[in-house]
C-alpha cells in the first residue's frame, strides 16, 4: 500500500481551498471591465483560472524537458519519473487551458477557436504532445528504446514552449496580449491582480502536491515491477 506524503495532502487541501476562493472572488468581488471594449465583458473572469493553468502547464512541460534531458545523460529511474510526471501534469493542466480558453473565445469572439492564432495553435500542439507521450507510455513496452523515443519527443517538443510564451508578442491575432500582474503601471485593476495572484498560488500548490504524489506512485510502481521481475527470474531458475 502506497502511503501518500502528508505534505502532499496539505498542499492539495490548501490549493483546493484557494481554488474555490479564486472562483468565488472572481465571480463576486473582482470588478467589471469596461463594457465598451469587450463583446462579453463578464467572460473575462475566466482568466483567473485560464492564466494560472497556462503557468502551471509550462512548469509541467519544463519538468518534462528536464526529465528527458536527464534520461539521456544519466538514464536513471528518477529521470524517467520526471518524464512521466511532467507529461501527465502537462496533459492535465494543458487540457485546463484549452478548455477554459474556448469558453471565453465563444463568448467574446463568437467562435471557440481561431485557427489563425499562433498562441492557440502552439498550445494545442503542446497539449497534443503531452497526450502522445502519455498514450505511448501506456501502450508501448517499457524498454529503454521506448523511453529514448519518448524522451526525444519531450526534448524537441519543448521548443513550442518559448514560442507559445511569446506568441502574442511575435504575432498578435485575436488572443489577448501578455497579462502583467506585477506592475502598478500595467493598467490592470488591483482587485483583478489580487484575485489572479490567489489563483496563481492555489494552482501552483496543486501542481506541487500532484507532483509529489505522482513521483511517489511511479516510484512504488517501479519497485513493484522490479520485485515481480526478480520473482519471475527466481521461479524460472527453479
The sequence of SSEs as H and E is HHHHHHHH
Number of strands: 0
Percent in strands: under 5%
What's the number of helices? 8
Q: N-to-C terminal Cα separation, in Å?
A: 29 Å
**Gyration radius over CA:** 21 Å
Helix/sheet category: mainly alpha
Roughly what is the average pLDDT, rounded to an integer?
88
Which outline best applies? Answer: globular
Query: Can you summarize the main beta sheet?
Result: none
User: What percent of the residues sit in helical stretches (DSSP H or I)?
Assistant: over 70%
- How many distinct folded domains? 1
pLDDT < 50 stretches:
181-186
How would you describe this protein?
The protein is an all-alpha fold and 238 residues long. The protein has one domain (6-223). The protein is 74% helix and 0% strand.
Quick structural gist:
This protein has 238 residues and is mainly α. The protein has helices at residues 6-28, 47-74, 77-108, 118-139, 144-157, 160-165, 167-170, 190-236.
Question: What topology emerges from the helices and strands here?
Answer:
Elements: H1 6-28, H2 47-74, H3 77-108, H4 118-139, H5 144-157, H6 160-165, H7 167-170, H8 190-236
What would the keywords be for this entry?
single chain, 238 residues, 0% strand, mainly alpha
